């Protein structure tokens, strides 16, 4: 087959039957960046020491109603994600220190430095837990925009990522 005009009915059926195996969906992803320090409380390697990263965060959203794009043909304007989630990140995390609430030594040290920007987490500030935190915040902040946040990906270094997403669970299965 050289071009679409030469496609036989059999080839066309074969192609469309393959496409029908997938559900259509549309999503958008916004990249946000912030700089922050942390340490992994209880870690036995280098991450036990205070250090920092330039975090790259990808927020992926889809319309609540499947393919329901807005009147302009968008899931959500990229600027809305930046204005809402990006603003929260700037206010709470950017150029601050993320610290686990059980890490009393680090909390006390940071509190002794005048002007420290501290974000206390209920879990160790790993990339995985930061992704979970940002997923929860993104859901909360974008709830009025008719979107579901599909996933949040946090890149801590050039080769290390953590992704948090919700997966659909079949609650009709009674275990039989």
Write the layout of secondary structure elements.
Blueprint: H1 9-19, E1 28-38, E2 51-63, H2 78-92, E3 96-100, H3 104-111, E4 118-121, H4 127-142, E5 147-157, E6 160-165
Parallel strand pairs: 1-3, 3-4
Antiparallel strand pairs: 1-2, 2-5, 5-6
Helix pairs in contact: 2-4
**Poorly predicted spans:** none
Query: Considering the protein shown, what is the CATH homologous superfamily?
Result: 6-pyruvoyl tetrahydropterin synthase/QueD
Overall pLDDT level: 89
CATH architecture: 2-Layer Sandwich
Residues in helices, as a percent range: 25-40%
Q: Looking at the structure, what is the overall shape?
A: elongated
Assembly annotation: single chain
Could you explain the architecture of this structure?
With 176 residues, the protein is an alpha/beta fold. The chain has a single domain, classed as Tetrahydropterin Synthase, Chain A, CATH 3.30.479.10. The chain is built from four helices and six strands. Strands 4-3-1-2-5-6 form a six-stranded mixed β-sheet. α2 (78-92) packs across α4. The longest helix is centred in the C-terminal third of the chain and has 16 residues, at 127-142. It is elongated, with a radius of gyration of 22 Å. The N and C termini lie far apart (49 Å). The model has no long low-confidence stretch (mean pLDDT 89).
